[in-house]
Specification:
Largest sheet: 9 strands, parallel
Bound molecules: beta-D-galactopyranose
Strand order of the largest sheet: 5-4-3-2-1-9-8-7-6
Helix content: 25-40%
CATH architecture of the largest domain: 3-Layer(aba) Sandwich
Number of strands: 26
Structural class: alpha/beta
Number of domains: 4
Number of helices: 17
CATH class of the largest domain: Alpha Beta
Strand content: 15-25%
Shape: globular
Distance between the termini: 21 Å
Length: 706
């Protein structure tokens, strides 16, 4: 159980300040009808709770908590600190955030605060304390919801206070030694040398590219500055109510915050997920985000704290969820480890910025399709109650390193087109299509428990972490490493040899991968280069490399252009395991490689067909080149799907309790499919039978004894 509430949590943000009190009573009753078990209260209530600096008004919130308790509904109570009131901003205008161009952002939206402001932090922790002390004993309180979506709207602030905080952070990082900072930032280049920490400012708008070391530290600092806000509130809550779990809602795989460092301080990892119904493959990226959330909590059940019941209101075109999609996507979160499905928001607003955002109770009230779906989902989540607390197992891990992500996407690199999330997604999508379970791990994780480790990109890697990967492979693990890896250390300095001079790529991964990269060969926009793997041609886009093997065998070769005939994909037998290197972006679908020297391979020599000694055969390839490589790596690692033989487009996951396995079968096709390949001796928790088919966008949760 992630809170004291048993079963799967179901509910929404409730913003009752918008309605007269009689509506609250009605809403509580309707929540009962819908099977709601938890509401999130107070997320944007600061102005109501503290109408003036020395004035508090808790009466209305007292009545709400009492009301929900009387209806048996638990409360996820927010500390309400995400949006300071107008009086606060006018009294302390210096707390408003400032952009890199020096523009101070105004009051009138939300999330308008400087993370480094001691005035803001003091006011926020004062409010958190007032709320905590008021409700410490309240029986409705089940979960603390600290702030809301840290990093939403404002991820960094460039004001004078932030500058002071940045300098403090730097003094701490570099042991008060400006020489260390100068070395780390490489300030001898372009005459950027500092004599004192006081000379340093945030990376505000400058005439040209800003020092990359400064930018990288700024990103680290900005994540830490928001984390400090979170930790300050958390400390208050832990002091007043040590028994109540805390969370703060994450924003899926978000670049700005290093969620590994954040999640370590959460009792419950929670996420806000808004996949776009207009995007036919949105469920794939969604699955990736959910796997990340589960992994951030070390495999513990997590909580979907917000999703839209139907359309959002903040895209250019806001497409609603067609019938069945809300159900399918909701159960998908449970399939990937969520123990609750919450929404934004309960009752549709009649005014304000989000009045056209869907809600569990639409403007049209209880006569609508939306409401019927709300009631149905609540009833179905009750049927799934027993899966709460169960966990899943993965034999494959993907390395995700925020520091490397930040460094990779800095300016003035060989190509501005390389984006880590896209790379990871293209690899993830191939595992997803094969129904292979996967976890995410941080770069310093001990990978020994996995049979296959994937590093779609490790631009920045420490010698220590590279050494750990080498030990893993030596001991029998399989590793697949993507292009432009092993390039820099934690300081974003290019890896060099022991003497600090001659080095070469891929730095500390060279021996493990058995290759030397002579030069990077980014591929111009709109072009592709054919790569032959296992007798088939696949398009490489965005990136290629001049690779020389120093021990690895060649698994795939470039077929055209300057690199024609050179290695593109390699595998190095290393100790008892194998280390693959993919020197290009093979995430593009077959058929997109016909331009600019691409073209099918069957027309010329040089291509071997059948099975190579690396285990890649024509029959194993997936829908992209990276799929072909991953198929072979999965085979080498002996890793298969959660369930084999299911029709394409059917997602399957498995959660296990001590006594049972729960197979989640999710049909993302818009046609019926057969479930012949699913376990016969299992019963669907939703229907009580063993379905032979799944309807279009249908769902089954098959329970099997262990
Ligand atoms: C989230 C936010 C909610 C609401 C929702 C729908 O980002 O936390 O308060 O705005 O999006 O747009």
């Amino acid at each position: 159980m992630i809170t004291r509430v048993s079963g799967l949590l179901y509910g929404a943000d409730y913003n009752p300040e918008q309605w007269p009190e009689p509506v609250w009573e009605r809403d509580a009753k309707l929540m009962g009808e819908a099977g709601v078990t938890m509401v999130t209260l107070g997320v944007f209530s600061w102005a109501r709770l503290q109408p003036a600096e020395q004035e508090w008004d808790f009466g209305w919130l007292d009545r709400l908590l009492d009301l929900f308790h009387a209806h048996g509904i638990a409360v996820d109570l927010a500390t309400a600190t995400a949006s300071p009131p107008a009086w606060f901003v006018r009294r302390y205008p210096q707390t408003l955030p400032v952009t890199a161009d020096g523009v101070r952002l105004e009051f009138g939206s939300r999330q308008h605060y400087c993370p480094s402001s001691p005035i803001y932090r003091a006011a926020a922790t004062r409010l958190a304390r007032a709320v905590a002390e008021r409700y410490r004993e309240h029986p409705a309180l089940a979960l603390w919801h600290i702030h809301n979506e840290y990093g939403d709207h404002v991820t960094e602030c460039f004001c004078a206070e932030s500058a002071r905080d940045f300098r403090r952070w730097l003094r701490d990082r570099y042991s008060d030694d400006i020489g260390q900072l100068n070395f780390a930032w490489g300030t001898e280049f372009w005459a950027q040398r500092y004599s004192h920490f006081e000379e340093i400012e945030p990376p505000r708008r400058a005439p040209g590219p800003v020092n990359p070391g400064q930018l990288l530290d700024w990103r680290r600092f900005s994540s830490d500055a928001l984390l400090a806000c979170f930790l300050a509130e958390r400390a208050v809550l832990k002091e007043v109510t040590p028994q109540v779990p805390v969370t703060t809602n994450f924003m899926s795989m978000m670049k700005d915050l290093d969620y590994w460092t954040w999640a370590a301080h959460e009792d419950v990892v929670s996420d806000d997920a808004y996949p776009d119904p207009a995007d036919a493959s949105a469920h794939v990226a969604a699955a990736m985000n959910y796997d990340l959330m589960r992994s951030l909590g070390g495999g513990r059940p997590w909580l979907l704290l917000e999703q839209a019941p139907s359309a959002v209101s903040w895209r250019a075109v806001n497409v609603p969820k067609p019938p069945e999609l809300r159900r399918l996507w909701s159960v998908q979160t449970v399939a990937r480890g969520a123990d609750g499905v919450m929404h934004f928001q309960w009752r549709a607003s009649r005014a304000g910025a989000e009045k056209f955002h869907s809600a569990l109770l639409p403007h049209g009230g209880t006569g609508t399709r939306g409401w019927r779906e709300t009631v149905r989902l609540g009833a179905e989540l009750k049927l799934l109650a027993e899966v709460a607390g169960s966990r899943s197992q993965s034999a494959v891990a993907i390395v995700l390193d925020w520091n490397s992500w930040w460094a990779l996407e800095a300016e003035d690199h060989p190509s501005a087109r390389v984006r880590l999330k896209e790379q990871i997604l293209s690899w993830y999508a191939e595992l997803y299509a094969r129904n292979v379970a996967v976890d995410f791990v941080p770069p310093d994780a001990e990978p020994a428990g996995y049979r296959l480790v994937l590093a779609p990109n490790l631009y920045s890697v420490s010698r220590e972490n590279a050494g750990r990967l080498a030990e893993y492979v030596r001991g029998g693990g399989q590793l697949v490493c993507g292009f432009f890896s092993g390039i820099v250390d934690e300081l974003d300095h290019v890896h060099q040899g022991i003497d600090g001079l001659d080095g070469g790529y891929p730095g500390p991964l060279t021996e493990l991968l058995g290759v030397a990269v002579d030069e990077w060969w980014p591929i111009p926009d709109g072009e592709a280069v054919a790569v032959e793997i296992g007798g088939r041609s696949w398009p490489a886009t965005r990136w290629s490399e001049w690779v020389e093997t120093t021990g690895a065998e060649v698994v795939g070769r470039y077929r055209r252009g300057v690199l024609a005939g050179r290695p593109a994909v390699t595998r190095n037998a290393f100790g008892a395991g194998g280390a693959w290197y993919v020197s290009c972006d093979l995430g593009g679908a077959e058929g997109s490689g016909e331009q600019a020297g691409g073209g099918p391979l069957g027309d010329s020599g040089g291509g071997s067909s059948g099975t190579s000694s690396s285990g890649i055969s024509t029959s194993m390839v997936g829908s992209t080149g990276i799929g072909a490589v991953l198929s072979a790596a999965l085979a080498a690692a002996g890793v298969g799907p959660v369930l084999p033989g299911l029709p394409a487009g059917v997602e399957v996951t498995c959660r296990r309790s001590d006594s049972h396995s729960y197979y989640f079968l999710l049909n993302h096709n818009d046609r019926e499919v057969s479930l012949a390949a699913a376990p016969a001796d299992a019963v669907d928790l939703l229907t009580g039978g063993r379905p032979s088919h799944l309807a279009a966008h249908g769902v089954a949760v098959l329970k099997q004894g262990r």
